[in-house]
Amino acid sequence: MSMSTSASPDPVRFDTKIAVLLREDLETWQRLNVTAFLVSGLGAEVPEVTGEPYEDADGVRYLPMFRQPVLVFEGTKETLRTAHTRVLSRALPRAVFTSDLFATGNDRDNRAAVRAVRTDDLDLVGLAVYGPRNAVDKVLKGARMHP
After folding, report:
1. pLDDT band of 14, cuts 50, 70, 90
2. What is each CA distance from 66 to 35, 62, 115, 141, in whole angstroms?
3. 58-80 confidence digits (pLDDT tens)
4. Which pLDDT score, from 0 to 100, does residue 7 have?
5. How far is 19 from 140, CA to CA, in rounded Å?
6. What is the pLDDT of residue 13?
7. Distant-in-sequence contacts of 133-138, Cβ < 8 A, 24+ apart
8. Which residues 6+ apart lie within 8 Å of 75 measured at CB?
9. Which DSSP string do the residues of 71-92 spell out, in sequence order?
10. Minimal CA–CA distance to 94: which of 24, 36, 20, 147?
């Protein structure tokens, strides 16, 4: 058995973080759906999170994706409320998903459902945030990595 003597490159450490916080009582399909919706807003609003398009060996092109991992966390309803308060106080780019959005079927109704509820009364089931690592870590304090 041959062993390579070449050193592997150091892992890339980003000075920013993309994170999603999900309420712990969501069904699996809800977790996946909420995560997909939440991160779509970051890609549209914060262009630096998106890398270059992909292309396979046959020259078939694919859409670009985030240039860094998306870390997924979970927490209680109170953890989400506290994180929401923190993200607002730090003015970081964020996206929210409320329980009301499970009953809507289109973008217009989604926006209307959020618009109809005061900030402190939002029934949050998910929150995405992007920013400097330390600021995002402070927003997510008390949350745990999704298993």
Report:
1. confident
2. 14, 13, 28, 24
3. 999 999 999 999 999 999 999 99
4. 57
5. 9
6. 77
7. 133/14, 133/15, 133/16, 133/17, 135/90, 135/92, 136/16, 136/17, 136/19, 136/92, 137/17, 138/86, 138/90
8. 21, 22, 23, 24, 83, 142, 143, 144
9. EEEEE-HHHHHHHHHHHHHHT-
10. 20
> In this structure, what is the dihedral angle of CA atoms 115, 120, 123, 125, given to the nearest 10 degrees?
100
Tokens of 7: 């050193």
Q: What is the pLDDT of residue 93?
A: 95
Query: Residue 74: which residues within 8 A CB-CB, separation 6 or more?
Result: 21, 22, 23, 24, 143, 144, 145, 146, 147
